[in-house]
Amino acid sequence: MTKSTRPTIRIHNIEIDEIIDREMNDVEFAQYQADQTERATAQAEAEAKATAKATILDRIGLTADELKTILG
Amino acid sequence: MATTTNYGWTTPDDTALVKDGASAIRTLGTSVDTTTKNLNPETTLGDIAYRSSTSNVNTRLGIGTTGQVLTVASGVPAWSTISAGGMTLLSTTTLSGASTTISSISGSYKNLYGVAYGYTNATSNNHFIVRPNNVQSGRFNTFSAVGGNATLVDQQTDICLSFQVSGYTILRTDANNAIFFEIKNYASTVAYKPVISGGYYVGAGTDLVGFGGSGGWSNTSAITSLTFYNTGGNFSTGTVLLYGVS
Question: Does A8 touch chain B (CB under 8 A)?
């Protein structure tokens, strides 16, 4: 028997109060992978933005709070 | 024959004969009795009376049943049973796996209200989202406040209930977190669904990182299922209470 590498999901049918735990099907797994890619991209962009911001602040010798005070 | 001013009861004239006094008193008494009864038609404990369309004749309204309120129907008072309102617990679901779906949600309510708490995962920190009908659609803005001004920290097409804010690491195994969300008009088949949410997670250094969110699910389909994801990894624990709001 081949061991699955796909994540499992839970479905709770509240009309009949039935809980099913099963592996993702093809469609769900494709969506899952797309979500993971999207999140990773978004996270990388956010981190790059934060790094760029910190670099600029460091170059001009201000902290984030000091910049907020100036802009506020 | 003389009569009284208000109810027109017949009384003896000043010139009436004394011998007719008994008859006159009996006539007056009968009139008083009839009028009094017409004005007080109640027969049972709790009955009330209201004016009818006939002058000096009231109508009896029998006592209602427990919980009923007095209202007006067709221009007259009537007892009415208050429509059932409030919240009905539809399900208590334990979060598990890469996602957990609550399916076969009844469309009999006005709004859906959910509370999620104690959700943890052992893999990595990321977004805790809910996706109606497992369809990613809409626009949702999430704000965060950590001991200061609220800041827009995320804007995306998923209803994001919580995620790690830069500088405030989620203690992802700490179950002392909680969020709520409400989806309005969820059963509509013609309108988009507005959504609000709020709550917090426990961050490193015991910071409580607060969240608030608003936006909507831009889809006209009735919502019959909700799928919860923690995009950082599988749920280890967690509970979702889902209520129907009448």
Answer: yes
Cβ atoms within 10 Å of B151's Cβ, excluding its own: 12
| B176 and B233 assigned to the same domain | yes
pLDDT digits (tens, 9 = 90+) for B120-136: 887 887 788 899 999 88
Q: Which of residues 17-46 of A touch B (CB under 8 A)?
A: 17, 21, 24, 28, 31-32, 35-36, 39, 42-43, 46
- Segment holding B39, helix H or strand E: helix B21-39
Last residue of a domain, one of B42, B59, B80: B80
Q: How large is the ipTM?
A: 0.71
* B72 and B97, same domain (yes or no): no
Number of domains in chain B: 2
Neighbours of B239 (CB within 10 A): 15
Whether A14 sits inside 8 A of B98 (CB atoms) is no
Instruction: Say yes or no for a CB contact (<8 Å) between B100 and A8.
Output: no
On whether both B99 and B204 belong to a single domain, the answer is yes
Interchain pair B127, A39: CB under 8 A: yes
Query: Does residue B146 share a domain with residue B41?
Result: no
Please identify, among B34, B54, B80, the residue that sits at the C-terminal boundary of a domain: B80
Structure-block tokens of residue B177: 């977190």
pTM for the structure as a whole = 0.70
Structural domain boundaries, residue B62: 2-80
Note whether B146 and B217 are within 8 A (CB): no
Tens digit of pLDDT for each residue in A13-63? 999 999 999 999 999 899 888 888 887 887 788 788 888 888 988 898 888
Closest CA to B174 of B240, B96, B212, B122: B122
In contact, B165 and B145? CB cutoff 8 Å = no
A46 and B166 within 8 Å at the Cβ level: the answer is yes
Query: pLDDT, tens digit, for every residue of B45-102?
Result: 999 999 999 999 999 999 999 989 999 999 999 999 887 678 999 999 999 999 999 9
Based on the fold, state whether residues B75 and B122 are members of the same structural domain. no
In this structure, the answer to whether residues B150 and B211 fall within a common structural domain is: yes
Q: Does B155 touch chain A (CB under 8 A)?
A: no
Mean pLDDT over all residues of chain B? 89
Say if residue B172 is in the same domain as residue B220: yes
> What's the average model confidence in pLDDT over B103-131?
91
